[in-house]
Amino acid sequence: MNATTGRHSKPVHLAVYDTLADWETGHATAQLARAGHEIRTVGPSTAPVKSIGGLRIQPDLALDDVRPGDSALLILPGAGLWDTGDRLAPFARKARAFLDAGVPVAAICGATAGLAREGLLDDRDHTSAVSFYLAATGYAGGGRYADADAVTDSGLITAGPTEPVAFAREILRMLGVYEGEVLDAWYRLFHDSDATAYGVLEKAGAL
């Protein structure tokens, strides 16, 4: 699929909150935007938030105003706040509403712990930073943990903090941006710096 296709009818929603990990979602959102997906940021409110890298972000809308039926995907980045209390628990509850409505969710790093606490990983294959990180939440899904770069199961994508490219790969696959050898080439280029991937992407119009 060409990465310069027209705008899609439903936006992708990117959760933003204080201490969010800047590096974890950039590959995904940049490529989705190039493919014609509108990216809308969602905060606890519409008040500005600040990333772990000090970037100030003005959310497009508040979490309470997001409805699953109006979205193609909810992306939840990691953040220190996932492990320091319940301030981000409403985002995990919103993820449940999305999944219950059949709308996919993608969670990386600390967000996977938030979903574990919400019970969303108990019955799905998943991954994270390391298994004992999720085990510390007391969740019941330890038997479904996979040592993998990223995992997709039942509409939910999970990944650890060192795998932003694999995280993006699963998102691009789920939304049909790339597939097959083009998706593989995209991953090889950005994850492995494999110059041979350029030819595949160029031929597909994906550069």
What does this protein structure show overall?
There is one protein chain. With 207 residues, the protein is α/β, with parallel strands linked by helices. Helix content is 31%, strand content 15%. The chain contains 7 helices and 9 strands. The radius of gyration is 16 Å and the shape is globular. It starts with 11 loop residues before the first strand and ends with a helix.
Which helices and strands, and how do they pair?
Layout: E1 12-15, H1 26-34, E2 39-43, E3 49-50, E4 56-57, E5 61-62, E6 73-76, H2 89-100, E7 105-108, H3 110-117, H4 131-135, E8 150-153, E9 156-159, H5 164-174, H6 180-192, H7 197-203
Helix pairs in contact: 1-5, 2-3, 5-6, 6-7
How many helical elements?
7
Strand/helix succession: EHEEEEEHEHHEEHHH
Across the major sheet, the strand order is 5-2-1-6-7-9-8
Helix content: 25-40%
The major pleated sheet works out as: 7 strands, mixed
What's the count of strands?
9
Average pLDDT score: 95
The best one-word shape is globular
Unreliable segments of 5+ consecutive residues: none
| Structural class estimated from helices and strands | alpha/beta
Strand content: 5-15%
Give the termini distance in whole angstroms: 11 Å
What is Rg? 16 Å
